[in-house]
Design a protein that fits this description.
The protein is of the alpha+beta class. The chain is 46% helix and 18% strand. The strands form three sheets. The protein has a five-stranded antiparallel sheet with strand order 2-1-5-4-3. It has a five-stranded mixed sheet with strand order 11-12-10-13-14, with helices on both faces. Strands 6-9-8-7 form a four-stranded antiparallel sheet, with helices on both faces. A hairpin with a 2-residue loop joins strand 11 and strand 12 (428-434). The longest helix has 66 residues, at 3-68. It is elongated, with a radius of gyration of 33 Å. It starts with a helix and ends in a 20-residue tail after the last strand. 30% of the residues are buried.
Length: 526
């Protein structure tokens, strides 16, 4: 075999080896990363569904709070005045609020008044046997001890699984004695899941325990899953990936199976990209190896042939020094960029570009860890815009979005670099402040925030939503966990709302947190 043929065979072998190595790297390292991204997307879909249920439970709890802390309801629980029923507790009230259950019970669980219906039916009618005459004394919905604290969760009913919230019936100042409990609920049916799918852009379905056949895959999955677990399943035939999680009632028993599903777009696009990358690498490799072969022939083999001819003819010859270099193409670096973009979407609010609830919770956990170690205090401030609903109703959601963006920008200007400003959802913002003076720090920060709303805001055509009510909770006085602080801040915020809005309240009564009288204003609808 001649030198030229040997060089050609070596170049071809090197090209095949290069392509084999590239295929191995792409198939064993890069492609699995696409699968990981796909699984992360499926889990994120389920987290979004669970967050949506949390938001709906919060809204239901607020509705229950508005009614249970109403003096007229408090009086009705005492005297059972039928005139109150006719003027306030009509079926149309439940239909307008899309509420499936309103149930008033006394402290012993006996029914004062109740009505249950399916508002999604063409002709909703009250259920004949539900709610019944009483609740057991040990039922969690009537076991609430504090006057300003409620309970929310899921409950199995004759109509189906419901999202429920219970609040003690007290005065408008959250004072007792407790005269009973107001229980409200929303039916978790196909209509509500379909509306949720359209609202959050996630395909979600549900299976109630009572609807599942014994031994079915969904029934086994519901019995095997543990709280907080999200299970993934891949349907290769349909190129779909699904995530499943169980919903538990107030007693901790599984009653509903949630399932989200999405197309395997990421893995399919990843495989297409890798195939294109292999083709590009093959074409480039052929060109590169051809160039190497040509350079070797010109600078090595041809001079040797010329030298041999020269020796044969003249007995002497010269070989020029060889020159040349070769390169291998780098693998794609798109995976790193995709991870960065997905991480940004998972932790930042798309409208205001502020940290979202997930990012806030992570920072808050870190802050509480430092505060526990250093024995310092951490304040959580929950801001709710007063009258923001009027902006969306009268001017549209785009105007409301412009107002939220403007307020977010101005709030950044009054906070320290060490403070964290996040959007909690809807018209609510969160502030995490570390190392504040315990007695005056939270109140001073609340003053600076309220002062923002006295300044001109860019959307001059918007007249509502230009004040806010602030609830303050402080670690460790009000709670040792992020969830505790958020719940206490929410309670304090409602106290600020009850005081007329445009003010703040601290949950801890020991703090010097009462604002001056001039800080308040007339009540605003939230």
């Amino acid at each position: 075999m001649t030198i030229a043929n040997r060089v050609g065979a070596l170049v071809a072998a090197a090209l095949l080896l290069l392509l084999a190595v590239d295929a191995l790297v792409l198939g064993k390292i890069v492609l699995p990363r696409f699968a990981v991204l796909e699984e992360q997307g499926a889990r994120e879909d389920m987290r979004r569904v669970q967050a949506e249920f949390d938001d709906q439970l919060v809204q239901l709890d607020r509705f229950a709070t508005d009614w249970s802390a109403w003096d007229d309801v408090y009086q009705f629980a005492k005297d059972r005045n039928q005139a109150f029923l006719q003027s306030n507790l009509e079926t149309k009230v439940m239909l307008e609020q899309h509420v499936s259950l309103m149930w008033l019970v006394d402290p012993q669980g006996k029914t004062i008044w109740g009505r249950a219906l399916d508002p999604d039916q063409p002709m909703p009618k009250p259920h004949g046997a539900f709610p019944g005459q009483h609740l057991p004394l040990d039922h969690p919905l009537i076991g609430i001890k504090e006057t300003d604290v409620g309970l929310k969760g899921f409950m199995q009913t004759p109509l189906g699984v419901m999202l429920v919230a219970s609040r003690p019936i007290v005065t408008s100042h959250f004072e007792g004695p407790v005269r009973g409990f107001l229980i409200v609920g929303k039916l978790l049916n196909e209509h509500r899941l379909a509306a949720m799918s359209q609202r959050i852009g996630v395909e979600v379905t549900g299976f109630a325990l009572g609807q599942l056949e014994a031994g079915s895959p969904q029934s086994r999955l519901l019995s095997l899953q543990v709280p907080g677990e999200v299970r993934l399943a891949v349907d290769e035939g349909r190129n779909r990936i699904s995530a499943s999680a169980s919903v538990y009632d107030l007693g901790g028993s599984p009653i509903f199976l949630l399932t989200t599903e999405r197309s395997r777009t990421i893995i399919m696009q990843g495989m297409d990209s890798l195939q294109i990358a292999l083709i590009v690498l093959a074409v480039s490799g052929v060109f590169l190896m051809g160039l190497v072969y040509l350079l070797l022939r010109i600078q090595v083999t041809q001079p040797l042939i010329d030298l041999a001819k020269g020796i044969q003819t003249t007995g002497s010859g010269t070989l020029p020094s060889p020159r040349g270099s070769g390169e291998l193409a780098d693998v794609t670096r798109e995976v790193g960029g995709m991870l960065e973009r997905i991480n940004h979407l998972a932790h930042m609010d798309s409208l205001t570009d502020l940290p979202n609830r997930t990012f806030f919770a992570e920072r808050a956990e870190h802050a509480l860890t430092l505060a526990k170690r250093n024995r310092t205090h951490v304040a959580v401030l929950l801001l709710d815009l007063d009258g923001f609903k009027e902006v969306n109703v009268t001017l549209g959601h785009q105007a409301g979005d412009r107002l939220l963006v403007a307020i977010a920008g101005m709030l950044k200007g009054v906070l320290r670099e060490s403070d964290t400003l996040a959007r909690f959802g809807g018209d609510e913002f969160l502030v995490l402040a570390e190392n504040l003076p315990l007695v005056t720090g939270p109140a001073e920060l609340a003053k600076r925030i309220l002062a923002v709303f006295k300044q001109p805001l860019p959307p001059e055509d918007i007249r509502h939503g230009r004040s806010c009510s602030i609830g303050i909770a402080v670690y460790p006085d009000d709670g040792a966990t992020v969830d505790d602080l958020l719940r206490k801040a929410d309670i304090a915020m409602y106290r600020a709302k009850s005081a007329g809005g445009n003010t703040w309240r601290c949950h801890a009564e020991t703090l010097n947190c009462l604002p001056d009288q001039q800080e308040g204003q007339a009540p605003q609808e939230s």
